[in-house]
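Why run this: before we spend reagent on co-expression, it is cheaper to look at a predicted model of the complex and decide which construct boundaries make sense. The entries below are exactly what would go into the expression plan.
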Amino acid sequence: MGGNQNQPVPDPDVELLRSISAGDRHAFARFYEQYCKLLFSIAFRILNDQKEAEDVLQEVFLQIWDKAGSYNPVLGRPGSWAVTLTRNKAIDYIRAHERRSRLLENASTEMFVSTPGSPTAHESVPGRGDAELISSAVAELPADQRKAIEMAFFSGLTQHEISETLKEPLGTIKARIRRGMLKLRDRLEGVV
Amino acid sequence: MSDERLEELAALHVLGALTPAEQSEFDAALGRDPELRVLVAGLLAARDAVAGAVPPVTPSPALKQRILAELDARRPKVVPLPVRPAAGNFPGIWLSWALTAAAMLLCGILYQARNDLQEQVRGQAERIEALNQMADALRSETNTLRQTVAALRETTKLADVRIALLSSLLNDSPKAVAVSLWDNQRQSGVFVVQNLKPLPADRDYQLWVLDPQNPAPVSAGVFQVDPQGNVRIQFKPDKKILTAGKFAVTLEPKGGLPAPTLKNLVLLGG
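The model came back. Tokens follow.
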């Protein structure tokens, strides 16, 4: 009785990737609709250019089409995997075009995380009713920790470069990133 | 390795900020430590929270079509295998083998062709659906603007204000629209633009007022749009306008030109 109750619920995104790897264009179109706005917002934040962000997004989705079969859950849930691909492609794009100055320029920009209540890219993912909670958790991080985390992720700077830019010892930067990320993980436990 | 050190490496790992040496060290630890994998999963959720807390920006509807077209272009073609001519002392047997092989090959090609056609039909259906959605969105935006203009026209306060709706003439920015509110008495106006393509630093959009009693369009200044393609400006033409017949926007070199480059017409309306 109730033999299936303890079976884990299959992740619909994993099912989508499975279908994509089998050449299902409908599944691909659904995955695109689900994540295009989130991924585009991330690419746009890194590149600050509509056309370049679209070029990067195109490469990311073609990569998803090509590599869906080799998706490894150790790399995170499908959405996380797509976020990683997008971030890395955007940073690679800047590096390939020898625009190191842009990385530094990005790093020097003020923090851009929306204040609680204003819209964020989280809301673009269908079924994400917890978007406001997630955005609040990020916005409530201590400013120094948030800054270090954002510089690492959006600017693609090395730990040493972050340390130089912020004029803080390397150990301090690493500790801020560690503490901030753990704090955020704890706050999001049970939410995502 | 201490727990603290592992946590530090895991946090930097999910942010893509490990050095190559640290990444190798971490990957090795990740392969053998299931608890570390749980830690990474939690930190990835935290990383995604940071990544998605940016202001939402929408890609152009054409991007999906570009990607689907690229997939179409990459679809592998079926290359028929070469069939050796029949030879030897048993022509009847070879002939039947050859016919069987040819029939099988034909079946394979037809099956693949059918699948390709089905894929193409599906692709076309998706494109039509996306185009319909885009058309609906455009209709909706235009209707909203028309309603706004109609409401403004009905406002007695604005009885002396000329209101014009400008539409896009660009294939790559069909959603670009603008409204011009022109006060002839004050010889100034307000110009509101939406969804216009942001420009490189060496270019400007230039606004023009077309006065039927003036032989040439009158410049009303240059402007740029924000990354979302929107802007609101106040403008004052270079010369006195007797009747503001139409308004136009052209794409020009930085700072604008004394006369419009007509081939670079972006928005027009009146």
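The first helix of chain A runs from residue 12 to 21. Chain A has two domains: 11-98, 100-192. Bring this page to Monday's planning discussion.
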